[in-house]
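Task card 7
Instruction: Convert sequence to structure tokens.
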Amino acid sequence: MAKARTPRTSKPKTEKAENKVLQMPEATVAANGNGNHPAIDVESEIRRRAYELYASRGYADGQAEQDWIKAEHEVRARQSQKHTA
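Output:
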């Protein structure tokens, strides 16, 4: 006698990875505490400046941390000049 077949249950369908979109968190107040500039904008400005420094050195690897620190210093100094003026 043949075994009775059990009904197959289908697995829940999951969305494909390309359909999932990551959303940026809501802007948080910058570390300077004045509430005028979102932290996300500051970070993107620092990232852009660090890349400019990297490019100006001929795209030579090995100084990413120094580029970031210098870029952060420049951006924060520029911001403080804007707020004091």
